[in-house]
Amino acid sequence: MTASEPEALELAERALSFATGEAQATVVHERSLLSRFAVSRPTQATQVDDVTISVLRVHDGHTGSADTNESTDEALRDVAARADAAARAAAAAAGAAGDYPGLPGPAPLRSHDGFDARTAALDPREAGIALRTAFDGCAKHDLQAFGIWTAGLVDTAIASSTGIRAHDVLTDAYMKVIARDADGRTGWAADAGTAIAALQPLALAERASAKVTREEPLALEPGEYPVVLEPDAVGTLLDFLGALGFNGLAHTEGRGALVDRLGQRVAAPAVNLSDAPSFVRTLPRAFDAEGVPKAPLPLIQDGVAHAVVHDTRSAARAGTVSTGHALAPGGAPWGPAPTNLVLAGGGAADEAELMAPIERGLYVTRVWYVNTVHEKSALLTGTTRDGTFLVEDGRIGRPIRDVRFTDSILRLLEATEALTAGQRLVADAEFYGRRFATGVVTPALRAHGFRITGQTV
Amino acid sequence: MSDADCSVLDLLTELMASAEGRCAYAEARHVEERGEAIAVLNGGIDALDSSDSQGIGVRVRVGGGWGFAAAREVTRAGAEGALARALAIAQAQPAGPGTPLAPVAPARGHWSSPYEVDPFSLSLEEKLGLLFEAERALRIGDERLVRTVATGRAWRERKAFASTEGAACTQELVAAGAGIAAYASDGAELQMRSYPGAHGGGLAAAGGWEHVRGLELAAHAPRVASEAIELLSAPPCPEGTRTIVLHGEQVALQVHESIGHALELDRILLSEASYAGTSWVSPTDLGTLRYGSEHLHITADATLPGGLGSFGWDDEGVAAKRTELITGGVLRAALSDRESAAAIGLGASGGCARADGFARQPIVRMTNVSLEPGTVPTLADLIADTGDGLYLESNRSWSIDDRRLQFQFATEICREISGGELGRLYRNGSYAGVTPRFWGGLDAVCGPDEWRLWGLTNCGKGEPGQVMEVSHGAAPARFRDVQVGVA
Predict the structure, then answer these.
(1) Average of pLDDT values for A199-224?
(2) Which of A108, A454, B296, B385 is the most buried (most CB within 10 A)?
(3) Measured between beta carbons, which residues in chain B are less than 8 angstroms from residue A38?
(4) Complex prediction ipTM
C-alpha cells in the first residue's frame, strides 16, 4: 500500500458511473488495528478492513443519499438507484425546489504529509511491543496499566458529476496509558500523531505513573477556583466550542454561541484559535466531505471572534461560500464543524510556570463525560479524571477527589491568563462508525474562576 | 430462516470447523444491516439516507489473548482471511493468563422480533407524508421558532452465528422510530421541546411502522411548539433541595446511567477503565449492597417484546433471559458475558454480550434494564400525593462520573408542583445527585398503566467505539431530597 494507490478513486468513479444527473460518489476505506489492555494484560484486539461507498444525488435542490460496503457492479448500481429514488421522493414530497445549492466544483488541493508507510503496515507486533513496554513501565512503579494502542489507514476518494476527482490517504496513531494503584488512584497520558513513531509507550507509562501519588485525595468544596488545565482538558473543551460556536448552520439559524458576537472580543487577548488542516502537529486533511479544499481559517484572533465554518448548504443559507468543513456528503444534518483546531501557544515555559501565581487552585489533567448544558452560552458540565490536584502557593499539591465542573468554555477563554509555549495534539480516538481521526492542537492554560459544582464520593 | 441465511450459516460453520485445533475457542458472526433515516426540517427534506452493509467478524482465543478481525467479503476466502488475521493478532499480544469462559449450551435455531408493518415494504412517499404532516403541525406561526424537525428511522439486522463449541443460529430484528422537535430562540435564549423522546424526539422500538403510526406525532406537534416558545420567557429553575417527580423517560435515562452501566461486570472488573470507566460497585457487593430504597426493583430482560435489547441469543450464543438485578433495593446480580461471569465464579453468563455490527467484537452491554412498575396508579395521582416539589421531563443534558456515582442532568421541562398540582413552568431545569443516595430517596413509582419501554439508540462504549440500542422500562417516579437548579 502506498499513498498513491488509486483503488479508492477508481471505486468512486465506478460508483459515479451508475448515477444519473448531479451526483457525488464517496469512498472511505478503513484499515485499522486497535489493542486494548487492562490490569496490565491485553483484553481485546480488533482489526477492521471495511469500506463505505456512498452516493449523494441532487434533484431540484433536494438531496438523497445511500451507502453500502459492497463494491460489485450490482451493489453500486443499487446504491445509485436508492440515492436517486430518495432525492426524487424528497423533491416530490416537498412540492417545491429545495435549498441545496448544488455540488461544488473542482478546486486545487493542497498536499500534506499525513501518510506513514510503517504505520500503514498495521503490524500487530508493533502493538504487542508497545503494550509490553507500557506494562513494564507501570510495573516499575508498582502500578497497573490500562489503555489502548491503535493505528489506522484511511483512504478517502470523491468523484462528482461536477468534475471533482479527489483522493486523500491519512495514517493515524494513538496510544493512551492510565496507570492505576491498588486503591484506585489513577494517572493519565496519551500520544497521537500521523505515525506510530509519535507513540512513546515508556514515556507514557512514566507520565501516567507520575500522576499517581500515594497521598489520600482531599475533598474540594464547590466554588470558583483558579485552574491550570493540561492540553487534554483544553482540547476536549475546545472541541465542544467547535460544535457550539463555530457551526455555521447553527449560527445561521440563530442557535450558535457566537450569534451577534463575530467581530467582538469573546476571549482574552492571548487567545488565538484557528482551524489549520496543514498545521505541523495536526492530523491533516486535503478536502472535506464535499471535496472542498481544506485551508487555514482564523476563528478567534487576539480574543476577537472572526468566523464560523461552513459546508455548501450552510454557506448558501448564510449567503457565503463553503469553508471546507462538511462532515458528510451534502452536509451533515447537524451542520459543519472544524476538525483541525489549533490554539496558539503562549509564553509560559510549562505547567509549573502556569501554576506559579496561584495561591490556591486546581490542576486538571483531563475532563470526562462533558456535555452541553446550555448551547447559547456554551455552558458545559463534566468531571475531572485521572489526575486532579490542588495547587497551593504556586506548586502542585495534594491530589483531590475528582470534581464536577459546570462552566462555559467561552467564559474560560475570556478568563484565560496564560498559556504554555508548547502544544500537544489531543486526539479524539473514540472511533465510532467509520474511522475519522481528528484532534485539537493546544497548549495548557491557566484561567481564573473555574466553576466547581460538585465532587465525586 | 431463508436460503441465504442457511448458506451463510453453512459458511460460518465450516469456518469454525477449520478453526478447531488452531485456537482455544473461536466464533464467527455474519451481520447484514439495512437502515433508513429521514429528517424533515423547516418544510423541506434535511436528510434522506439509506444504508446497506454486511460482513463477517471472527473472534478467536489464543494463549489467553483475544484476536478479532472483520471482513466485508462474505465468501469462503473472505472468512478464512478474517480468521487468519484474528489468529495473528491474538498471537501478537503479550502472553497473559488464560481465564475460563462460562459454559453455554450451543445455540441452535432461529429467532425473529415481531412486527406488523415492515417499514421497508412501505413507499418512501408514505413515510415522508407522515413526517411532513408532523413537521408542518409544528410551525404554528411564531417567528421565534427557528427550527422545526420531524425524524423517522427504521433498521433491520440479520445475524448468523457459529462457534467452535457447536453453536449455529440465526436471528432477525426489525425496529423503527420517529419523533418531532421544535427549537425556539429570542436571540439571547434558545429552548427546545421534543416528543416523544428527548434530544430531537425520536423514540424507537423493536417492531414495524405501526410503532411510528402509534406515536401520533402530528397530534402532539402544536403543544410541543407552544411549550418551546413558552420556555423562552419562563423563569429559571430554582436552586435548593426539593422533592422531584421524574417523567418516565427521564427515569429510564437515570436507570441507564446510574444503574445499568454501573452493573456491567466488565466495568466492575476494571476491563473498561481505559474508556467508559469502572464502577462504584465491587464483585463482593452482589447479594448484599443496598443500592436504593425498598421501592427499587430492577430487571434485565432480553425477552421483552418491543425491546431494542431483545434477542434470541446474545453475540456469544447465550440464550436470552430475564435477570433480577436489584430487588427491594438490594443488589442481586450484574450484567455479564461469558468471560466476566467466569471471572467471579458464576456458573453461567448473564447473556449480555453484544456487538455493534460485524466489525466490532462483543462486549458487555445492557439488554432491557427496567425499573419495575410500582403501585401509584397514574402520574396525576403521584403529583397529587406529592404536595410540593418539581416535575421534570425530557432530558436535555446528562453527565456522570467514571464510577457512575455523581451525576448531573438537565431537562427540557421543569414545572412547579404546588398543593398537589402542576404549576408554573421553569426553564433550564436541572438536578444532581449521588447514585445510592438518589435511589435511596425513591419513595414512589407509578404502576403498570404508566409503565412503558423507552428506546435508547445512542449508548456508546468500547474501543473502537460501539453504539448500541437498548430499551428501559420505566414509569414516573418520585425522589426525596434532591439537589435542583444546579446548572
Answers:
(1) 96
(2) B296
(3) 270-274
(4) 0.95
